[in-house]
Amino acid sequence: MSTVAAPAAVLLPSPRPSVDDDTISELPGLFVPEARQWLSTSEGRIASDGYSWMQAVHWVAGSGLYQPRRHRLHGPRSFGPTTVRVAQELAELSPCRPGIKYLVRRTGLSERSVEYHLGMLRETGLLAYIVKGTRVRGETAQASEFARMIPREYDVALGIRTVLRDPAAPAYTRSMAGIAEAGRGLMAKLAMKASRKVRRPRPKTSKAPVKGARKAAGQRDVTAVPDEARCTPMQVGTSTVSSASATSFPPESKLASGDAKSPTPKKSKAKAGGRRELNRVGRRFQLARELTQELDWLRGCSVARIAWVARGVADAGWTVTDVRGWLHLRGEAAQVRRGSGLLAVLLSNAVTVLDTPAKRVEAVARWRSAQEAARRDRIQQVRAQRERFEGDWQAPASRAVQREVEAAITQVSEVASGDRRQNREHTTDDQAAPLELSEQERAGLRATAWGQLMRGETDLITGTVNVMGREAAERIYGADLVRRALQLADAARSPLMAITYR
What we know:
two-stranded antiparallel ribbon; disordered N terminus; 502 residues; Arc Repressor Mutant, subunit A; mainly alpha; 48% helix; 20 helices
């Protein structure tokens, strides 16, 4: 080194010591309990704008002071880029009143993930409730309104001085008055991060070069730039290298044989219909949702509660049809006061009794037979009602006329029954001789009546009883056959029985 250059080297300023923004030993931890997550009880201060609030968000993300798994056993493991993406959406809202569905649509996350990250922002002191939303069944859900807060630990770590302009105002309205020299470097780094957008990660795709492709002259290897370092240029420039030079096509031989693979990623065949397979909890909720739709006495019950009650049968692989078959076998109550409690009682020991698929199929078959019998009974009742009330004759409106009509109908029926009785008395002696049938004829009539009785038809025997009397019918068909036919005829008129034959 020459004598002229030596004094110049001495005049250069010494570099500023770097500030480590990853670990801060002065602060033991960062956690705000639920009772202090409201604006009135918060120890932080309201952020003046979204930009300064994002600086505090990036500081919390890089400090490592907040560990979610210290306070819960589920959810995200750290305050990471996904939480920062949610915070970016909140920073653009004025007032900060986001809905869960809005954040799901903007971030592409699930409702549960959005709730987790909002809770993490509250536990770090970055958000405070102004108004807490309501979710009442049967009413429109109301979104919560938040205040973007800067935690007290952030001011302590950077040496920020705050002042309360109005002594009568609350403590969370204090504003920034200065910053220590040691925190200026860290503040500059946080400003660069706050001005950069954290984008949604792209799906990983194969970037292997196609065989047969040649690099253009002077072309260099391109290194993928992460999303965090990507930025938008302020001016539009031109390039001397055409982007079309990097395009390569497979040879015609591969195109003709079909060996060339399409660069478009295909959907996975392992997922039927593009949906993922339900796990154990998902199957419970699916069965509970179907039960609340199928059973009238479960309408309005909480799906989560029904999923917990029916967890045993859901884990055993039961469907809603299997549950309907078991409930028919077990018996249902006419009056229900608490649907979930009744379901818990009815499903007790269901897996133990119907422990095989064959038993469940048999129970379902019995339930379907009962449903068919009830349907036929309703059809018969409707037919009888229509035949009774949809005739041409209409009952008179006057009560006096109705009494006269009833008296006339009674008189006509008595006269008809008297004539029938008189005719029967006159013809008893005349028909006594033809009733003396041969043994071969009686056997033929009994075989015919027995075959009809096996098919559920009793018209032959009941008609003989109505015309000739029970004693004459018993002499022809036998007392046992007549008794069976009359019992079957009485049972067929009951709404609780349906007679079928195979």
